[in-house]
Amino acid sequence: MTAWTVTQTHRYKAAIEGAGITDWLSFIPTSDITQVDYDARLQEKQVEPFLQFSAVMHADQVTTPLLILHGEADLRVPTFQGRELFVLLSERGKTVRMVTYPGSPHFPNRIEQRRDILEEIANWLARYNGTQVSAR
Questions:
Q1: Rounded to an integer, what distance in angstroms lies between the CA atom of residue 27 and that of residue 25?
Q2: pLDDT digits over 73-98, tens only?
Q3: Which end of the chain, C or N, has fewer beta carbons within 10 A?
Q4: In this structure, what CATH number is given to the domain that contains residue 68?
């Protein structure tokens, strides 16, 4: 939702996305869970809704600084989902940072990686939102 939100509004000072879906068209056949569109559309029959609701299709509209956090071994939302958005935003000169966690699934299970996530969030919010947050 975060990736989509920052393509649709400019109301936030900063945003943080954790292992989010950025491209519905490629997500559905690559996730480890069966994902069916809620109204049972088939990708090859009706591609428009999948593209319409994919953040990567609206990267040029992003004005909110975005921090992307993703586990490199995520089978639920493959890491390329975050990387694709990161590259598109970077190419367009947007404020974006991506941090990946080696060996981590959908949410890191190593304590040092979890601690790093909290530090990344605190630093991002302090820098772009003007909010001082303690990671400890």
A1: 6
A2: 999 999 999 999 999 999 999 999 99
A3: C
A4: 3.40.50.1820
- Asked if the structure places residue 91 within a domain, the reply is yes
Task: Give the span between the Cα atoms of 105 and 119, in whole angstroms.
Answer: 19
- Residue tagged 């292992």 (tokens): 19
As a whole number of angstroms, the distance between CA 12 and CA 6 comes to 8
Taking the model in full, what pTM does it have? Answer: 0.88
For residue range 47-79, what is the model confidence (pLDDT) as tens digits? Answer: 787 888 899 999 999 999 999 999 999 999 999
Give the residue numbers spanning the domain of 116: 2-128
Residue 88 lies in a domain: yes
Amino acid present at 37: D
Query: For residue 117, which of 128, 94, 133, 93 has the smallest C-alpha distance?
Result: 133
